[in-house]
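COMPLEX REQUEST
Ligand: beta-D-fucopyranose
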Amino acid sequence: MTSTPDLLQPRRSDFGPGFLWGCATSSYQIEGAVDADGRGASIWDRFCQRPGAIRDGSSGAVACDHYHRWEEDLDLMQRLGVNAYRFSIAWPRIQPDGRGKAEPRGLDFYSRLVDGLLRRGIQPWATLHHWDLPQALQDAGGWPHIGTVRAFVDYADVVTRHLGDRVKRWITHNEPWCTAFLGHHEGVHAPGVKDWKTSLQVLHHLLLSHGLAVPVIRRNSPGAMVGITLSLHPIEPAGDSAADAAAVRRHDGLRNRMFLDPLFNKGYPAETMALLGANAPNVLTGDLQAIAAPTDFLGVNYYFPEVVADAPGHGDIAARVVEREGVERTAFGWQVKPAGLVTLLRRIHADYGPRRIYITENGSTFDDVVQPDGSVPDLQRRSFLARHVEAARQAQAAGVPLHGYFAWSLLDNFEWAEGYTRRFGITHVDYATQRRTLKASGQWYAQFLRA
Ligand code: FCB
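STATUS: Structure written out below.
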């Protein structure tokens, strides 16, 4: 095996026959059709109206128009050769007001999608909440409010009663870190709240709603595998000082262990809770037991490692994320480090021992240039993909119970606060015509999957 990154050629057969190869998307990022078939408003519809909230002033109102083009998109996946597809269900299509009676047209859309996947031999992986909370629930208090926890469990019940006979892989939440901190502390994601203490209560309520939903999903979807997807990062020290090493530990507590520890029955990390002091979430009797409901897998979204320096006075955690000089980066500025995936997966396996791990997202954004003939030679993304697949192989060879990999994303799409300025797809989307074109990275994936 050569060490030239572009020439690293992992082979599908290295991963064993049952390994899942997929693509991931999320509802608000691709569906569009925000007024179709009784859909209610989500917090992202509202947030996009805020001047300055989205870099290009856009929204997910049309996005990839997947709501109307889903069959074409399923055909595309079939041509790619994936055997699994991770999508999310838009809560406001199912319960336009966030609670109560289900909207049958919303349920039917996902029902058709699931049947279409099964017909093509693609296993459906459904995420219940990928950030598009119904606006009505936000108006009633949102995630800081316990009522939203109850509403989520009810919504999970409605969806899994309807689709649980055919969907057997369920993810409760996508990346609760983002909802908690980007949505409620930094305010750069919906609902755009900036309050530190509130963000920690949101963290707790997301995990609690996950734990309470797990038994409900199991009841409605016999034989299903249920899990949650976290955004996780290996954390590296900026320098060799003992102070930076201690900062890494503190930052890791907030970034990773505040999620992993309670999910794997260790409770919240005492050290982090002590640092948070009065800002720590309010945890009631029984909450931790609920959060630790046994799951079948952990979904890991890996994009980049974080480099951290000691920063006295910098918030409760007194640590700061810094940029390392001279490293490879995506157009987003995220460091490219495939080896970080190996480190991360080995650590999760050693410290928490989830039964199974799936990489539920991994991908990159670069400034794609469409050639006159329509092709998109995204060689950097292709290299990113190939090297991370190789890293996944190394993790598996090291004993990590890794069972699948989902590339982010099937399509270029609405990248949240970045609007349409960032393309993550292995398929190019011409937003004016909605034409889809497989990029060089997508062609590499197809070839890898065929071999
Ligand atoms: C993840 C999100 C996903 C997408 C990628 C780039 O944090 O889960 O929706 O935006 O980042």
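REMARKS: The chain has a mean pLDDT of 97. The radius of gyration is 21 Å.
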